[in-house]
């Protein structure tokens, strides 16, 4: 990929990943090579050919809609906690770490987070390590089937995340399992989001321009649209919904890991449709205690590593603590 092509795009490419679920090594290598080109140039792509059904995606979306339709008192029963699990009220985050824009207004959305499950008696939870604890779930009598639907989806998405990590390894000339060792106990987030129609106002966004923190994001959109991706010319390129497809993008950790070979591309959401918008990004990240160091194949002939090694936990917590209002409030109250 030559330098002039990086960031030069006017639409989001599409990648059929069905080969990654098979055993044909040639087809897997071809898919990995195609993926690499997209991640170098665009940092975004549509993932098709996966086995996760539209019905399963829609079941999660339906559960999200039912949750957000509950009363504020009911949603507040699982208010987001110190372990970053639960309900985040409307306008509960402002992306102050954005490298794209000076953001001062909170995101026009409400959301609910479900991370990798951690039992209350897990050593990490007992020790009080960051983000280690059980998920919070709506009352089963209020939303029957909610937990089962979410957990089945997270399991399927985790398999897809591992397939992507394997393909990225192969694309760099590494053994297929090279990166997956960092995901033996992955940090995962499923975030169900609700964006009400937003008024036209300067500096107001459903989600302000930003890059994602982690390894990769796999997003399922509804049919409303509103996601836009920034190219190198400063143009915002629409990423319209494709039924059954996931929008995959590079996060900051993968960009660091690859020495910026892969681009963590800024994106935003503006819901100017006049309709309610629902989305469900799944974030697939390394284990919290993994150290992220530039991968050997990504070090150029000059031997330069652009980034110092960093503990993923430290990187993640810095961004969460800065961008989410409830964490700032808790920190202030603790002083």
From TrEMBL:
Pathway: Alkene biosynthesis; ethylene biosynthesis via 2-oxoglutarate
Matching SUPFAM superfamilies: Clavaminate synthase-like
Annotated protein name in UniProt: 2-oxoglutarate-dependent ethylene/succinate-forming enzyme
EC number: 1.13.12.19, 1.14.20.7
InterPro entries tied to this protein: DIOX_N (IPR026992), IPNS-like_FE2OG_OXY (IPR044861), IPNS-like_sf (IPR027443), Iron_ascorbate_oxido_reductase (IPR050231), Oxoglu/Fe-dep_dioxygenase_dom (IPR005123)
Reaction it catalyzes: L-arginine + 2-oxoglutarate + O2 = guanidine + L-glutamate 5-semialdehyde + succinate + CO2; 2-oxoglutarate + O2 + 2 H(+) = ethene + 3 CO2 + H2O
Family the UniProt entry places it in: Belongs to the iron/ascorbate-dependent oxidoreductase family.
PANTHER family referenced in this protein's UniProt entry, alphabetically: 2-OXOGLUTARATE (2OG) AND FE(II)-DEPENDENT OXYGENASE SUPERFAMILY PROTEIN-RELATED
Keyword entries, A-Z: Ethylene biosynthesis, Iron, Metal-binding, Oxidoreductase, Plasmid
Superkingdom of source: Bacteria
Biological process according to GO: ethylene biosynthetic process
Transferase in keyword set: no
UniProt keyword Metal-binding, yes or no: yes
Cofactors named for this entry: Fe(2+)
Any one GO MF annotation of this record: metal ion binding
Fe2OG dioxygenase domain location: 186-286
């Amino acid at each position: 990929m030559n330098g002039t092509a990086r960031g030069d795009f006017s639409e989001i490419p599409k990648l059929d990943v069905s080969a990654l679920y098979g055993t044909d090594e040639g087809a897997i290598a071809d898919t990995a090579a195609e993926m690499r080109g997209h991640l170098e140039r665009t940092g975004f792509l549509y993932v098709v050919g996966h086995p996760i059904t539209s019905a399963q995606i829609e079941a999660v979306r339906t559960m999200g809609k039912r949750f957000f339709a509950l009363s504020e008192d009911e949603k507040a029963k699982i208010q987001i906690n110190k372990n970053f699990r639960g309900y985040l009220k409307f306008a509960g985050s402002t992306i102050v770490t954005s490298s794209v824009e000076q953001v001062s207004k909170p995101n026009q959305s409400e959301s609910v987070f479900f991370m990798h499950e951690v039992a209350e008696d897990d050593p990490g939870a007992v020790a009080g390590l960051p983000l280690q604890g059980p998920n919070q779930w709506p009352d089963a009598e209020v939303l029957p089937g909610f937990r089962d639907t979410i957990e089945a989806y997270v399991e399927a998405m985790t398999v897809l995340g591992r397939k992507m990590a394997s393909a990225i390894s192969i694309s760099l000339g590494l053994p297929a399992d090279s990166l997956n060792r960092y995901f033996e106990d992955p940090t995962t987030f499923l975030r169900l989001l609700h964006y009400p129609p937003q008024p036209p106002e300067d500096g107001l966004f459903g989600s302000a321009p930003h890059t994602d923190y982690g390894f990769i994001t796999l997003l399922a959109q509804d049919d409303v649209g509103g996601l836009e991706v920034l190219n190198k010319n400063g143009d915002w390129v629409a990423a319209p919904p494709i039924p059954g497809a996931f929008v995959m993008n590079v996060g900051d950790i993968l960009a660091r890991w690859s020495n910026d070979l892969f681009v963590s591309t800024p994106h935003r959401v503006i819901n100017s449709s006049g309709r309610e918008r629902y989305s469900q990004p799944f974030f697939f990240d390394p284990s919290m205690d993994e150290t992220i160091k530039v991968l050997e194949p990504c070090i150029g002939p000059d031997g330069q590593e652009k980034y110092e090694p960093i503990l993923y936990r430290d990187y993640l917590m810095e961004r969460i603590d800065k961008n989410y209002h409830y964490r700032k409030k808790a920190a202030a109250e603790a002083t």
